[in-house]
Fold each of these.
Amino acid sequence: MAHRPGVKGHVLAARNARVLYVPSTKVASSTLRRLLAEANGTFRPDLVPYLDGPTISVDQSVHNMMINGLVHMELLSARDQREMKSSPEWWRIAAVRNPYARLYSAWENRILFRAPGQVLAEAWGECADEIVDGAIDIGGTFRKFVAVLSENPGVFGRDSHFKSQSSHFDLTPLDLTHLVRLDREGELARFAAELGHRVGKTLVPRRLNEGLGLSYRDVVDAATADLIRRIFADDFDRFDFAAEAFPASLPAVVASQRETQAIRYARSVTERLEQVSRLARYRTTTRHLAAQTLRNLGLRS
């Protein structure tokens, strides 16, 4: 049975495999991009050294269109788009994830480790680390973040990691042929096998974003769970996620001194990479502008 998601998003097309994909942040999006790129025969990790900006890892480079070889559906002709949206020969896929797990993963990646995003500068002050004996209190810092997200969501700007999954779907009116439920054991692997059968390849989903190895159940207490259910009420209602029971209090989850140092070091590396990336984009833009100026003056063909 097709699922109807209900203005324009950023749908990815694997044209050789005839698959459209509606990405949602922190819902196995790296894994699914790689699966589709491999199915499409367009995965080119060998091109990583030629990217304009720095890349944190080869695994993360799969988000770059030069590496994955996918295309934005919206950039294709109206005729091609109509076919992709309606033809029975095309798959139209998306995935959804337990909101508790998704939010913890988003926080760990975007807030704790400071991965590049669109949060506003004041978010860092409001979501500052809770410190115990010089080490980061992971549980306390996460719960503090959820309270900020509930009370002052504006500080997270337009960053889609902190928007509901439903909001991703509503950007893109498609009848889905596949909705991969990551909350159901083995469903991603089954989808990979089905996709592999479709294209005559053996495809195995790979976990590409390993964090601290903690579960959301290590840091979510009853009060925080209630906030998460309110923030993402549309996801719980739309996708029938269970309202899990959580304890009123939890044992402290505090990073070791070495882990705290590693987190701070990772943040500094990310900051330097962002600076280099901005410089690379500036140089690329400058080259393009200079070339266009020369063409306008008739000095370059």
Amino acid sequence: ANSGLEHFCSQGKALHRFQVGLTPLLQAYASMLMVNEWGNHCEFCFTGKGGLSKCGRCKWTFYCEVTCEKDDWLMHKLECSPVIVLGGNWNPSETGRLIARILAIHKIHPERTPSEKLAIKELESHLGKLDNEKKDLIQKEPCCSVSLSFQAPSVPQNDILVVHFIQVNYHRFTIKDEELSHLGSATFADIAPVIVTCKGTLAEVREIHPGEEIFTSYIDVLYSTEDMNDCLRDSYFFYLWTNKDKDKAKVEIWKFTYPPEADMIRYVCNVLSYEGPSTTQVPQELSQEKSCMFEDSNMYKMHMMCQAMICLYMQNWEGALPYRQRITQPCSKHFLYMPSASMWLKLGRLGGPGEQTSGERALKKAIISMEKEVSDGRDNLYISEIKQELENH
């Protein structure tokens, strides 16, 4: 053991060289689109575009073409009738929806298919590490989300359902778009052998040579050691982190991440409403000059957010960009912080007519950030689309 990590020999290490930015393309064993995204994306392929057509029965889910609707019917029929009956009151958990879909797939394909390197039933559950209180809480969730909310085929006994619930919750992946907005969830059994690391991004953003182990990190790297272990115990029933070297720096960063309070937002809106945006220009310039006074207090991000709100209200996109940079800059000192690309991308798309300079600059910075991230890389489809946006500006 070294620094709290156990090293051991295992089969299935990298069989060939991986470059920084390569993205594995794997078919999900089961996937689902968030209910909140119904109407914005295709239920089957997750494509987000106009011209989506409603499901002919429930009128709630949408598809980009007839082929997607037909291909998704085996999964959607589990939810179609309950949605018709319950309408807006139908709101099971994402894990419950995934379990129902996995049960349906098991009924159709009870044996592992040749394309599956690892079967769902072989996934680790850490069931033996649960205390009684956690077991009691988990036992109620599958019954509520699967047995009652779905027409799930051959619902197994509750003990087996609990194991399914833990496996899916433990190995579920979040599906996001290019702006890191949450779209849904999926299970990829073949990704399960990837080893969890507690070294932030140091182990992932590098070239991997044959014979080396592949690592991933699925807990926010800005959490302190204690908070990360709490998250691991709550979600995955084990813990790893022992190194507290960066805890002090993380605490400093967290001071900037609290959202502005509702009273402060109301204050800004009232000022803009009663006094008009032009009267706030001078205070804005003065507070920007004195912003260093806020840097060592919890007021820092609140101050930056309020100034950005004023700039956006006045459609001063050029003035809003520096505030965004100040908010995320502390994170970039210690980590490759993925939301940075998302923030640049959103700001680049906010600019109105006549504000191409600031929009182009933000989009270019989004591309730079995305190319540095192992999840995107230089040849990613999202980057190609953003470059096309730049050409059309």
Amino acid sequence: MVTNMLKRLSLYTLLLCIVPFFAWIFAWQWNANDVMTNFDYALYFLTESGSVPYAIITCGVLALCFYPFFLDKKLWVKAVMVMAFSVILTQGIKSVLKNIFTEPRPYVTYVAEQTQTSTESFYQRDREQRSLFLQHFFQTQSTIPSWLKYHYEKEVGYSFPSGHTIFAAGWLFLVVGFTQLLGLRSMSSKILIAVVTIWSVLMLFSRLRFGMHYPIDLFVSVLLSFVVHILIFHFLQKKTIFINNCTSKCG
């Protein structure tokens, strides 16, 4: 069973890594002059589902999706606690690593070049000053839509690793891991996996598209989340807390 869990999580890890792999294979680079389309506007709302405070709503919705699968609702509460632990742990690791590596975002590098300043001077400001600096700069950038300007002014942290990627990958691994742990084979569980997979892949794509991250940020973030969730589900399998405790929707 441990081997099956490893195979399942590895498969979805590889699937997510397709996004940075394609960027590398085709030598893709973010271009600040790219014209934003209606699809990009839709991507903005999707990427916001991984941003505070909307990420909290996303967590609640995804946790509730598992409620029908548990015969014992107390076990569902325990599962939600595991999910909360996963999100808090991975986001905590992300925050520590960002402050260690202090890598500038692609759009910050672009702004620094356009204003003939340095990324170091940008990050020496506090978060509020960074936002004000960007507001002043974007007043001269008429080609950038207002919603993207707002996103830039809000996301003024470091680039590596990607918190949105870790968040999306983490939830995909939680969904895949718990369906494997509970032995879920129903159509509803398969639909849940499919929806979260598409959401996760598009989340990664949006981070590249909007100039928020480099492919290496996404790649390492996926691997980091993979390692954390392999350890989490290895522990849960040893404890056998959730084994064979789902409803008739298992099969």
Amino acid sequence: MLTEQCVIVDIDGTLAEFDAEAVREWVLGPEKQWQPFFAHMAEALPSVAISRLVGLLSAQQQKIVICSGRPASFQRHTQEWLERHCIPFDALYLRPDGEDTLPDEVVKKTLLEQIKADGYAPWLVIDDRQAVVDFWRAEGLTCLQCAPGDF
């Protein structure tokens, strides 16, 4: 199988502006409440710097792989947000349904395995959450941390 170099990009707090305190009660506790979170995030603006960087990378023929802790059941919602804001992407990987209790870094480990199995070879990651940034770096990937993510 041929592998394609790619850049992995997170959504919430990375591509989408995100106030951890504003959404804490919905998604940062043990039980996830996705409906109010997505109602809030539907209005989120894209990060100007990160969306611009993703556009530049895409224009240079880099494959853009979106990898998020959002549940797979919200794939259409997520794709619509990306398309509405003209953010280019080649693939979208989301948290498997039913894995709400797993920490994001555990979910992203599973997603990374799937990304690689699908023939992508990541060389760069853009993410915000410290625990996830630490995970990517432990996997030997260069990770640009775009915002403080100690939550």
